[in-house]
Amino acid sequence: MGANHDDHHHAPDGRGRALRLGVGGPVGSGKTALVAALCRTLGPSLSLGVVTNDIYTTEDADFLRRAGVLDAERILAVETGCCPHTAIRDDIAANLDAVETLEHRFGPLDLVIVESGGDNLTATFSRGLADEQIFVLDVSGGDKVPRKGGPGVTTADLLVVNKTDLAPMVGADLGVMARDAAKVRGQRPVLFTSIRQDPTAATVADWVSERVMAWSHTHATPVS
Amino acid sequence: MNPALLLIADSRLPAGGHAHSGGVERAVASGAVHDVPSLSRFLRGRLHTAGALAAALTSAAALQASCTPISPAPDTTEAGTRDVTEAPPATEGGAEGGDDRESPWVRLDDEVDARTAAPAQREASRTQGRLLLRVARRVWPSSVLDELARTVPDPHHPIALGVAAHAAGATPEEAALAAAYHAISGPATAAVRLLGLDPVAVHALLAAFTPDLTAVAAQAHFAATSAYPAPHLAPRWEALPAYSAPALDLLAEQHAQAEIRLFVS
Amino acid sequence: MPSPPTGPTGSIALPEPAGGDVRTGERAGRGTADGGLGRRRAMRAHAAVATSLSVDGRTVVGRLASAPPLTLRQTGPYTVHLVSTAAGPLGGDRLALDVDVAPRTTLELGSVASTLVLPGEGESEMLITARVGAGATLRFTPEPTVLAAGCRHRLIVRLALEPDASVLWREEIVFGRYGEEPGRCHARFDATCAGRPLIRQEFTVGDPALDTSPAVFGAARCVGTTFLTATAKEALVADGVAVLPLAASGTLVSALAGDAVELRSRLKWGEKAASVDGDDCVAYGGRTGGPGIQ
Ligand SMILES: Nc1nc2c(ncn2[C@@H]2O[C@H](COP(=O)(O)OP(=O)(O)OP(=O)(O)O)[C@@H](O)[C@H]2O)c(=O)[nH]1
Ligand SMILES: [Mg+2]
Q: Which residues are listed for GTP binding in this entry (chain A) (predicted)?
């Protein structure tokens, strides 16, 4: 490690570095499954890095490494001391360190994905850590969740409602979820996925690659 | 007291401290720490060993920093803004600017290494030091912090803390006090989270330690001063304290090898 | 309950209570040490041992300067034992031992019995200064230091190595005799190689508020360390013992135990793991588990 001489984050406009994408949401909603899907789909065309914030040791990182969707060394795990939301919102130092370590080792990267530890509806990423964030819900929590709002649901750049394959089983009405989400989110997009049925998460991957494209246009490496 | 000390000692300083338990997580797992009285014994032991050591080394770093004149970093139109194009070129281990092995920062860092027998503790100290240095360079830009980052990119935590405190305008003894407090406040918070202890009872415990904190900081600073007899004389490195705590070493290595853990250390 | 401290070969020989009279030169009856364990004045003693290289390349113990109570006896071609010829050290004693191992020579230094530190007037001090030359070998494995109730002791070790020196340095401290609260002891250990620090450590025994802290000694009644110049490949930890590869080079084996026998076996396990692991990992069968763990 030791990225102190490489303080890209000091550049407030983020010039010359990868897009940092936060993936947050409640426990078990499918964040890791989505990250794996994004690596699978975008890996061939983009240079990627992943940081996981596990609650216990390195479970998510190990899952991703085993899944073989990305070189194992491009996946770093951050321990969060019982406070997953602190690590992505209030004290982002360890996550920034991990992101910059990846950029230092494998850069230039196009995209670094930071998966938060499973938390509750109030957890969001600091803008100092993530340029864009996806909030992942699943239908099994019931179709009332978007109505409850919370910063994740309301302000995330993309809301993903996952596990639509389970909707009939839990009696969740996707139409209601879409309507409630639109009410609190205004123009911000919402996508419904079943990573079980589409392991490429094609719609989300499209959204992400479009964001990466936009980022690289406005934040191209300065010629020095 | 310099008000900057409040910022430096605040557990909300975003420098990654919240993810370190200072051995408490493993002590809780083993049952050695299980309630407020056993936490109190743990913290007392920690304060007078690892805490006293950290305080002395922090004070030493602050003293050493005060031999280097402070000048604000050139490009600080607005705190923390620095165009990456103007940043000095990235150097591996500082290739330029003479022999960095002779840099007093490298030597002080070696001295911390020699006083930290457990590899897991060295790693935890360097991780926290690196994160603190990163934060401090943005919050209190100064040439001495830049110099430290150049010669020792991931310094031990006491070094980063001492230099950060100096850059913020605190005295070496105040820096020692911050180090002593850091040695018990993080573990105390971790114990609250791990054991569901009454946070007020734990804060009462911390309050009861305040005379010890003052004493530890004063002694640590005294020891550090005797290691730096005068600015023009070479430091007497062996005069710096070297307190160790065998149980903390064992806990640190057990933690590093644990299958399941919540905290980095 | 911890069993009484004993050496690895059975019981440790505690110095005879009448030992104070054995000393020549400085016997006198001022001050009472340990309630009748003998009366004598505080002593200053400076002993030394040095090796040299013979023309045919063998080690010669060239200098052996005893100073009661530090009496040195050569017990093998390159083996020397400390023979305690008096009780103590007692409070007020200042003892020093110089060890000089010339380049490419070997010295093994042990003691025939444990050292029982007794109270007296003021603080006692044992200062060991050792220089180990390039390519030389030193094994320092004395019997434990036992801190009797009421003692106040300082144990200072300064070890200066030249490159390629090979050292094993063991230190064991027992917190009082059986069922006894220990006196105070402050131990400091510094090892440098070519002027750069390898390990610097100090600790204090005998402050009840700190000794039993789960961060310091916990329930242990003995603490021990072995410093080795061999560098273990990785950190190891077992019940009450850790093998700690140092940052520069070398290894510290650090152990806590209920009694001296357990302490010795933990340290020896760590020493073996450190040296074998560092030199040839394959030769060492078991890395998992530890002393007392099947
Ligand atoms: N039925 C169904 N199961 C899914 C879907 N996506 C993920 N899962 C399963 O849901 C479980 C949790 O998925 P993860 O990806 O680990 O969820 P997570 O949000 O990363 O969980 P934490 O990191 O523990 O908060 C796993 O068993 C996945 O296989 C989906 O679309 N449909
Ligand atoms: Mg996950």
A: 25-32
Q: Is the pLDDT of residue C225 over 80?
A: yes
Residue pair A3/A101 in contact by the 8 Å Cβ criterion: yes
Report the chain B residue with the minimal C-alpha distance to residue C227.
B117
Question: B163 lies in a domain?
Answer: yes
Q: What is the pLDDT of residues C132-166, one digit of tens each?
A: 999 999 999 999 999 999 999 999 999 999 999 99
Euclidean distance between CA atoms C225 and C241, whole angstroms: 9
- Domain range for B53 is 20-70+101-257
Structure tokens at B91: 């150097």
Annotated binding-site residue? A152: no
Contact (Cβ atoms closer than 8 angstroms) between residue A30 and residue A163: yes
Interchain proximity B117–C252, CB inside 8 Å: yes
State mean pLDDT over B4-16.
90
Q: Mean of the pLDDT values across residues B72-83?
A: 43
At least 3 CB pairs under 8 A between chains C and B: yes
Confidence of residue A139 (pLDDT cuts 50, 70, 90): very high
A127-131, A209-213, C10-14, range with the lowest pLDDT = C10-14
Of C84, C82, C94, C85, which Cα lies nearest the Cα of C41? C94
Residue A54 sits in a domain of what CATH number?
A: 3.40.50.300
Global ipTM:
0.87
Q: Write the CATH number for B31.
A: 1.10.4190.10
Instruction: Flag whether B11 is in a domain.
Output: no
The per-residue pLDDT for range C81-99, each reduced to its tens digit, is: 999 877 789 999 999 999 9
- Which residues does a 6 A CB cutoff place in the pocket of ligand 1? A 25, 27-33, 60, 118, 162-163, 165-166, 194-196
Q: Domain tally for chain B?
A: 1
B156 falls within a domain:
yes
Contact list in B for residue C172 (CB cut-off 8 A) is none
Nearest ligand, CA A28: 1
Q: Residue A84's domain spans which residues?
A: 17-211
Give B97-164 as a DSSP string.
SS-GGGSHHHHHHHHHHHT---HHHHHHHHHHHHHHHHHHHHHS--HHHHHHHHH-SS--HHHHHHHH
Percent share of chain A, pLDDT over 90: 63
